[in-house]
Amino acid sequence: MFRTRRNVVAALGLLTIGLTACAPSAPESGAPSGAAQEITLDVWGWRQEDVAAYEKIFKIYEDAHPGVKVKYVPYKSTEYDTILRTGLADANGPDVAQLRSYGLLQPLVAAGSLVPLDGEVKELSAFPETVLDGARGVSDKRVYGVPFAIQTLHVIYNKTLFDKHGIAPPATWQEMTAAFDKLAAADVIPLAATVTDTWMLPIQQEIFGATTYGGQDYLKRMLAGEAKFTDRPWVDSLTTWKGTSKYWGPQFAGTSYTDAQALFTSGKAAMFPGGIWELAAFAKADPHLQLGIFNVPAAPGAAVTKTLVPGFVDGSFGASAKTPDKAAALDLIRWMASAEFGQAFSKELRQISAVPDVAPADPLLAQALTAYTADPSPYVTYAYFSGGTPTAWDLASESLSKFVLGRSTAQEAAKHVQQGVDQWFKPTQ
Amino acid sequence: MFCLPALALYGLFVVVPLVTAFYYGLFRWEGIRQAEFVGLGNYGEVLTRYPLSEEIPTALWHNVLFFVGTMAIQNTIGLGLAVLLYRNPRGKRFFQTVFSLPYLISPLIVGYIWSLLLSPAFGPVNFILRTVGLESWARPWLGEPDTALPVLILVNAWQWVGGPMLIFLAALGGIPRELEEAAAMDGASAFRTFWSVRFPLLMPAVGVITVLTFIGCFNIFDLVYALGGSDGGPGGAMDVLGLLYYRTAFEGGTNAIGESSALAMMIFACVFGVSVVLERFLRRREVTL
After folding, report:
1. In sequence order, what are the residues at sequence separation of 6 or more whose Cβ sits closer than 8 angstroms to the Cβ of residue A66?
2. Chain A contacts of B254, Cβ < 8 Å?
3. Residue in B254, B255, B257, B263 to test binding to A, most A beta-carbons within 10 Å
4. Do A356 and A269 share a domain, yes or no?
5. d(Cα A151, Cα A144) in Å, to the nearest integer?
6. A328 to A286, A324, B111: CA distances (angstroms)
7. How far is CA A18 from each of CA A15, B4, B96, rounded to the nearest angstrom?
8. CB pair distance less than 8 Å for A268 and B121
9. pLDDT-derived band at A9, boundaries 50, 70, 90
10. What is the Cα A42 distance to its own chain's centre?
11. What start and end residues bound the annotated signal peptide (chain A) (predicted)?
12. For residue A90, is pLDDT > 90?
């Protein structure tokens, strides 16, 4: 008996030692920092492939700010949100973090994990309100990050195939479908459309359906509670988009995102409806691929007669509320709202910077930005109806999948989105 | 006393997370900040909020179909292979290894490989079907709601068929030869011998495999995620409780921790409850020598 008790005590002691050993150590950066001490700012992000580019970008800042080191710490994109939520809870986490936009930002705002930037970063006043929407807390309307990139949605096309078949980027809907027919007749898949990866479906719906429901004007009415997903224009936009499915290639129901990318880069398909971010992946898959972009002209019976360019804010950089170097973190964030950062970002990462008046050097990005600035259209389900649960984006991904597979009507698909959103969305008057 | 290390580990890695999940599920959360106590409010929210309220019964039904399909295909084939190897010991070790090899691969990799094999654009499966003249059989297997779940059952069976085979093989080895010889002397056919002598004695193995299959089928996540993504494939045809939990926890909103913890507790109660009942039921049917 005595022996057993002693063993129990010994085992508990060992367990305690083991657990203590596993406990996190005291934060290094919690030590008082003297003026001469070097500050290292950890910037967390989800772009593992961009580490080298960010090192170059932050080198510019480091050179101008002796004593400050900026380190980009990337995490796997799919795990980033969870890691960030935990990381922001203590001082060992990031000083500055790459933040998701719109609805995905809200849990961090609700948890009080971020520093509100209103009044802290005066450069933000030059950013358009629609761009700041991507970094705004829905509950308090405050801005929590400096937007870094704008993503635009287009039909990306293979120039060589277009030239071979005598096709030019279309100016009207009829020209576009005639081009699709011509390619299909020549055994080229006109559109490499993603179907099984459902997150791509709302993107494609915006690309082909934006003019049918009317883009920005319709969004304003939706936000004011005067229009719904179930109203005719939005329902019709689904039908407009699905009308192109005869050009999606044989057995499109099984086409995944990577399949669609491979169909396009291998030259089996002439066009890929998707985001401007695809350009980098396509250039990597085949550096000789000659690429062009166009936006879908107004569909027959559309609410607007001009071509619309859907786009959204990809993310922003914000400061952790727990950072021990708040002043330095905010200074870095102010720099991220400058033209210097915007230009470096655009050049190194081949993306459209969200900083106003920064023109991308890449001609296709410049074309995308010019087109978006002239006729912008919102990515409605992702950007503006994602502040509650369930998000319109999740609902649309589910219901559009059933819709394109012929398992539901456009009206039913729209009802699924509206019914989900109705549970939390309150119109702003 | 000898159980103490195991008990400590079990407590740390099983009981503590379980109790924590139950505790978390009783509160509303704002991101990672625990807000007010809501009792069973999260449970109510999960069960009544559209579309979760409709997705839960659908996902549960898919888990049931997945379990029934796996029992019918994977475990029947496993039993068949075990009987074949038991009767023909030549090459037994070789085939045991071959059938168990997919065990060593992560379900995520298995799912990814099969999604490539079954791709309608580039996959060899449809290419072979077309080459041998079965053009109409070449389908977007993982893209059609009607074929997605059966494909999931088959791919899962492909990976795990070695498990029931090994258990059945061991159980067959434990049946005394005299019993079969006596049956043969009484004039029983091979079929009759199997069903009247061997199979009743295999019931303990059937019980273990059924419970393990049930737990595996109701906890499935990785393979179905690799084959159909977090939305559960075409039109949600492969949506299962594991994916639903994943979406609630990692693609959920501000109160993701509260709601996903409540959902996890409900899944646990369902799997634990049914497993206990199933185990008791099967134990009663066991025949002892």
Report:
1. none
2. 106-107, 110, 389
3. B254
4. no
5. 19
6. 42, 9, 46
7. 5, 15, 40
8. yes
9. very low
10. 22
11. 1-23
12. no
- d(CA A106, nearest CA chain B) in Å: 7
Q: Residues of A numbered 296-355 whose beta carbons fall under 8 angstroms of chain B's beta carbons: which are they?
A: none
Homologous superfamily, domain B21-284: MetI-like (1.10.3720.10)
User: B81-103 pLDDT, tens per residue?
Assistant: 999 999 888 889 999 999 999 98
In contact, B231 and B148? CB cutoff 8 Å: no
Q: What are phi and psi of B45, to 5 degrees?
A: -60, -45
Q: Is the pLDDT of residue B133 over 60?
A: yes
What residue in A sits closest to B50 (Cα-Cα)? Answer: A420
Same-domain pairing of A90 and A168 = no
Per-residue confidence (pLDDT) for residue A30, from 0 to 100 = 37
The residue ranges of every structural domain in chain B are 21-284
Percentage, residues of chain A above pLDDT 90: 79
Check B252 against A15: CB less than 8 A apart.
no
Residue A141 placed within a domain: yes
Q: How many CB pairs under 8 A join A and B?
A: 132
Q: In the prediction, which pLDDT does B289 show? A: 54
- Helix, strand, coil % (nearest 5) of chain B? 75, 5, 20
Q: Label residue B239 by pLDDT band (50, 70, 90).
A: very high
Q: Do B254 and A250 touch (CB under 8 A)?
A: no
ipTM rounded to 2 decimals: 0.86
CATH of the domain at A66: 3.40.190.10
Q: Where are the beta strands (DSSP E) in A296-339?
A: 309-319
